[in-house]
Design goal:
Elements: H1 3-19, E1 29-31, H2 37-43, E2 48-52, H3 55-59, H4 62-72, E3 76-80, H5 89-101, E4 106-111, H6 113-127, E5 138-139, E6 148-153, E7 165-170, E8 175-180, E9 188-190, H7 201-220, H8 226-248, H9 253-273, H10 277-289, H11 293-322, H12 332-349, H13 364-375, H14 387-397
Parallel strand pairs: 1-9, 2-3, 2-4, 4-6, 5-8, 6-9
Antiparallel strand pairs: 7-8
Amino acid sequence: MNIVKKTYCRLLQLGFKMAIPLLPYREPEILDSMEQIPKTLKKHQKNKILIVTDYGITKVGLGEKLKNILDEAGIAYAYFDETVANPTIENVEKARALYIDAECNALIALGGGSAMDCAKAVGARIARPKLSIQKMRGIFKVRKKIPLLIAIPTTAGTGSETTVAAVITDENTHYKFPINDFSLIPRYAVLDPTITYSLPKHLTSTTGMDALTHAVEAYIGRSTTPTTRKKAENAVKLIKENLKYAYDNGYDEKARRNMLKASFDAGIAFTVSYVGYVHGIAHSLGGQYGIPHGLANAVLLPYVLEDCQSVCQKKLAKLAHIAEIADPADEDELASTKFIAWIRDMNSSMNIPTKLDGIHEEDIPQMAKMADKESNPLYPVPVLMNAKELEKFYRMVM
């Protein structure tokens, strides 16, 4: 990256960091179970809800469980379960039409990051009916309060229940882009470990490593605060101590509960301190090929960390010591190396591959441009790179 663009990126990132204390960040209020939802809705005088989810959630019966809870409380609802893995503009518009036709006045997102992203985007379109999804791309384009949103994560990883972001894919161009606005932070998050019991092993692993990516990228970036550093450190420690237990035994309540807390803390950390190139690249892969976001993050993370290790080894070493991955006497270089090796070992132990199928050489330049456009100048990464420099990571994992 040339010096002019580097200077511009760093100055903008510094400005955002200085503004953090002035910005309206907030944490969602936590509910411990779905059974608390009716009381919460009645408190806010909401009587017709749009549930946004996906067919996989319907298939395993979680949608029916939520419906029964609302039925028993006499709360009406409409049900949308057509959200796809990388939610599209078409998903958002169909759900929005259902919200309007059913005269809903609140939203519940039930699922992983995709359902939550779709519900957030629906809320944004309800708040700003004259503004298209494409025109909301970027930061602070919504600027109006969305309908009450309750997020119920069925995975422990995306952190979407805490964030300002909704990531949407244009199904015509395959361009995957974020919408960022403080109004998109859900009002409530339901952290109920029993909901995650039936999560398949491959989703437990990849969403767990997604949470780790959030925590690590927020931590090694240049816009951390004491709060986000503490949240990221706690998330990494919880993931190290609980993810493999949750993977091996899905009904381990303690491990599942701790992973939900890890995801929540990591979500808060990256909401304030942002992520990095792992995410920018993963989003481009998801938009182009439909590669699940958590899988892409898990595979990419060790490669990107190795590339910038010399610049952020002190921070990686601290995480290694906090999570007891490194020995107390290890110097920063060794401790940071052990941390990256631990990530690779975790991936291997949970059958996450080291490469991604289906990447075509001819697509790499365009995907790298998309990653560059998303990441620069916003993400306060340890080492700045332009599109040409980012191309190497696609080749590393193809």
